[in-house]
Specification:
about 425 residues, alpha/beta, TIM Barrel, 8-stranded parallel barrel, about 10% strand
Length: about 425
């Protein structure tokens, strides 16, 4: 029987939990060092007591950059079998987290199945589920109703929840004063903004924040402080609304830590490349080095159909500059619900961004696979190359689609392969291209 409620409480008590042991081994870190980081709040291990199938992961300072996959049904796409195939895809390619963003009808059956089978962390946004769960229109939902949905998700085993507690009246005033091109693009944020405007009340997640924390503490759910006022186009980045909310999130971070609730803070969605590094440092400073979870950032607004690329560019810069957790973006972003192929493209783009950032940050053993690939390429060992590739199936399919006449090279260079030529000369052999 554990004598602590949360990973953070255990860490403060000097206890190294089984989850910390697992994460420390994955991260090549001493368990005692990890415990110290969890106690400080600069690392979170989202791990609901009811999520028994989880393979714990750490998010935060000094650890590998993790990625999240969004999925879930909408009113126009209601096939949970398709969504479960996306879950399988995410697990196969090593996503550390999956967020169920379903926003239509009763979603708890799918979520329970997700928790039962997924070794990845599971996240949700209770605000998305409120209308369907409560069967009430937005204006008729009471503050206590929102807390009921939070409790239901916690009981079902969700490891982290996006709670938009920072969009309070002060942040809204700053947003209203500083006119934007895109206004509010956060789905949860827009719903809360509408609720506040229609009812005249304060944000219930802010007003009753202590009650929210008590629920999360009971099940060891990590709070992911949502950025309701994140920029939805590059022209809106780093404006008064975004910064006003960030200041509120910094205060809410400390309040959660005082209750032994682990915290992640969510960050900007669209941002020009030259602003990203400064934003990462600003967030870390204002939010006391809490783990930072970013959507993108997307570095240009003109690439629908290719936003997994715009996101990977921004994500790599963000993670190299201090972000800890990347939310994937697929080619379908801004256009439609992603299909299975879109999900794969989004996962790969995000994993490449995360890995590139880990190399830049000097994360222990981040270069190991790159060195393995170089060694395999040096000796033109195709099977070894496929094995270490981030997507072995795609690498093999490309190679085999136009096979070379001899497997000493690929079909691009043939006998003029630079690696082959240099190896032969260094081995004392003669390089010839003309047949007898």
């Amino acid at each position: 029987m554990r004598n602590y409620k949360t990973q953070m409480q255990a860490a403060k008590m000097g206890i190294i939990t089984p989850e910390m042991e697992i994460v420390a081994k994955k991260e090549y870190m001493q368990p005692e060092k990890l415990r110290e980081l969890v106690a400080q709040g600069v690392v979170a291990i989202p791990c609901n007591v009811n999520h028994t199938s989880i393979s714990p992961e750490g998010i935060g300072m000094g650890l590998r950059t993790k990625i999240n996959v969004n999925l879930g049904i909408s009113g126009d796409c209601k096939d949970y079998d398709v969504e479960m195939s996306k879950v399988d895809m995410a697990i196969k390619y090593g996503a550390e987290a999956i967020m169920d963003l379903s926003n239509y009808g009763k979603t708890n059956t799918f979520r329970k199945q997700l928790v039962e089978r997924s070794p990845a962390m599971i996240g949700t946004v209770p605000m998305y589920d409120a209308i369907g769960y409560l069967e009430k229109d937005l204006v008729h939902i009471k503050a206590e109703d929102f807390l009921e949905v939070v409790r239901a998700h916690a009981q079902e085993g969700v490891d982290f929840m996006t709670i938009h507690a920072g969009i309070n009246r002060r942040a809204v005033e700053a947003f209203m004063r500083d006119k934007r091109k895109m206004n509010i693009v956060s789905r949860g944020g827009s719903l809360l903004f509408a609720w506040m405007m229609m009812t005249g009340n304060e944000n219930p997640f802010y007003e009753y924040y202590d009650e929210v924390l008590e629920i999360l503490r009971e099940y060891d759910v990590t709070i992911s402080l949502g950025d309701a006022l994140r920029p939805g186009c590059i022209d809106d980045s780093t404006d008064a609304g975004q910064i006003a909310e960030l200041i509120e999130l910094g205060a809410l971070t400390k309040r959660a830590w005082e209750k032994d609730v682990q915290v992640m803070v969510e960050g900007p969605g669209h941002m020009a490349m030259n602003e990203i590094e400064a934003n990462m440092k600003l967030q870390k400073r204002i939010c006391h080095n809490a783990p930072f979870y970013v959507l993108g950032p997307l570095v240009t607004d003109i690439a629908p159909g290719y936003d997994h690329i715009t996101s990977a560019i921004g994500g790599a810069i963000a993670a190299a500059s201090g972000a800890d957790f990347l939310c994937y973006v697929t080619p379908a972003e801004h256009l439609r619900l992603p299909d299975v192929n879109d999900v794969k493209e989004g996962i790969m783009a995000s994993k490449i961004a995360a890995h590139a950032a880990d190399i830049a940050k000097g994360v222990p053993h981040a270069r190991d696979k790159d060195n393995e690939m170089s060694e395999a390429r040096h000796v033109l060992d195709w099977e070894a190359m496929f094995k270490v590739a981030i997507d072995p199936e795609k690498a093999r399919a490309y190679f085999e689609s136009t096979p070379p006449s001899e497997r000493h090279s690929c079909s691009m260079c043939g006998k003029m392969c630079a690696v082959r030529t240099t190896n032969m000369i260094l081995e004392g052999k003669k390089v010839e291209f003309c047949d007898e």
